[in-house]
Amino acid sequence: MLQSGENASWVLNDNYVLFENLEPDGSGALAVNSAKVSSYGFWSGFQLIEKEAPPPPPSMVVHYNITVATVTSLEGPAGGAGDTWNQGNGNGTDLLDSTGEATGIGCTVAGDKHNLSNAAGTIPMLLNGYWTWNGDIYVLTLTGLNKAKTYDFYLTTYMDYNSYTYKASHSTPNSTTSSNPQVHTQNVGDNLAWELNANYVLFEKVVPDPTTGEFTITTENVPTPGHSFICYSGFQLVENVTIPAGTMIFVR
């Protein structure tokens, strides 16, 4: 309550009031209503301060390079230079995240797998992988995902075999905001720079199975004249993080 003489310095609830963390309504408006509790009521002015939203927590990222031997200087379409990478035959448990922490996430690749080493190109993640042909399919399954989260999933794919062009279709039974299936077309030389739907496909905001916490992707070839191949080079899994909304302070 304002009393005589209380204009020499600012005193909360004597010559000003503070409303913290106000959020605008759907139209972007803020409203403050005042009613007098004594003989007089007046406003001298106000200050409106926009508060910066705190930075979001870092995303959990898992990198996996399918390879027959350890590869260095790895980086994928989702980045990862200098990060911790999982490397192996596409089957693993308790994979490490980009900082080297265990995640409890596992992966399996089912299908007719043939080791392939691509010597050409400039992308280390595309130097090795699995390939198959003639109507075979691959099924990649991730287990141990957080059922309350959504994820972006990058599947990398490239093979260099007799300068062929090939297509493959990638589909998932999981909910995703991306087109489903995703189809990529790869030409010789598509391992020089990352290019969506040429050497990788992206499924965004994938929802893990609500019962099992799994994500599954099935890959099959789209026949082109004389060339029926599919290939897995690796994957990157990025956990989506909700960015807190900004808040407001209103001062009268």
CATH topology call:
Jelly Rolls
- Tell me the number of strands: 16
Strand order, largest beta sheet: 4-3-15-9-12
* CATH domain class name: Mainly Beta
Low-confidence stretches: 245-252
Mean pLDDT: 82
Order of helices and strands: EEEEEEEEEEEEEEEE
Helix fraction, binned, reads under 10%
Q: What is the second-level CATH architecture?
A: Sandwich
Integer tally of domains: 1
* Radius of gyration (Å): 27 Å
Main sheet: strands, sense, barrel: 5 strands, mixed
Based on Cα principal axes, name the global outline.
elongated
User: N- to C-terminal separation?
Assistant: 13 Å
Tell me what portion of residues adopts beta-strand conformation.
Answer: 25-35%
Overall structural class, as computed from helix and strand content, comes to mainly beta
Would you identify the CATH H-level superfamily? Galactose-binding domain-like
> Can you count the helices?
0
Could you characterize the architecture of this molecule?
It is a single chain. Mean pLDDT is 82; it is low at 245-252. This protein has one domain: Jelly Rolls (Sandwich). The strands form four sheets. Strands 4-3-15-9-12 form a five-stranded mixed beta sheet, with no helix packed on it. A five-stranded antiparallel beta sheet has the order 5-8-13-10-11, with no helix packed on it. 0% of the residues lie in helices and 35% in strands. The chain has no helices and 16 strands. The protein is mainly β and 252 residues long.
List the main descriptive attributes of the protein structure presented here.
single chain, disordered C terminus, 252 residues, mainly beta, 0% helix, Jelly Rolls, 16 strands
